[in-house]
Design a protein that fits this description.
- The chain is built from 7 helices and 4 strands.
- It is mainly alpha-helical.
- The chain has one domain.
Length: 203
């Protein structure tokens, strides 16, 4: 297993900030356009906020463009019988709560753009395991390995796994990343993510 050193984490942080500065003009323009589209498409807040589990189990507030109806959480209980994943994960095919603009944002992964603010704040890195909405107290012991590194906006799971894969499979993919993590690996994942977004395959 690759050793998560302070030097690597420091350089990873520097890489995140440099790439954020380079991308800022493009990201700011895209966010402005998306914000207008979300507002026109359905009533409710433009940005969706949710508590997620980060490095060492610390909880933080994550940001995404809203892709669902404003009362999506209230409707969740009514749709629980359609869930295709093992709890605490939740996913239903052709989710009726997703808005028209939301479907496009999810397909292109553009709904994730506000998470760059999480990266700037230090809650996340550009690359790493996806932070879960459920707390670390629900993890099995072996799941905890994914909490040794900062959570990411993108990672190996988004690039290679089925999006209906269970949590155990995602943790195994996270382990693969942790075993091979390096700045070169991070840059490779970022490049593949950009290619996925450009070709509208999602990330």
């Amino acid at each position: 297993m690759a050793r998560v050193t302070r030097r690597y984490l420091f350089l990873k942080r520097i890489l995140d900030l440099v790439l954020l500065l380079i991308a800022l003009p493009f990201v700011a323009t895209a966010c402005l356009v998306i914000a207008v589209l979300v507002r026109i498409d359905s009533p409710g807040p433009i940005v969706f906020k949710q508590n997620r589990t980060g490095q060492f189990g610390r909880r933080f507030e994550i940001y995404k463009f809203r892709t669902m109806l404003a009362n999506a959480e209230e409707l969740k209980a009514q749709l629980a019988h359609l869930n295709v994943l093992d709890p605490p994960d939740f996913k239903i095919p052709d989710d009726p709560r997703i808005t028209r603009v939301g479907r496009f944002l999810r397909k292109t992964s553009l709904d994730e753009l506000p998470q760059l603010l999480n990266v700037a704040k230090g809650d996340m890195s550009l690359v790493g395991p996806r932070p879960t909405s459920f707390s670390a107290s629900t993890y099995d012991v072996w799941h905890g390995r994914r909490l040794e590194v900062p959570p990411g906006v993108t990672g190996l799971w988004q690039l290679g796994a089925r999006h209906d894969s269970g949590f155990d499979e995602r943790v195994r993919i996270d382990d693969e990343y942790i075993h091979t993590m390096s700045l070169r690996t991070d840059l490779s994942i970022l490049w593949r993510t950009v290619a996925s977004v450009v070709t509208a395959r999602g990330a």
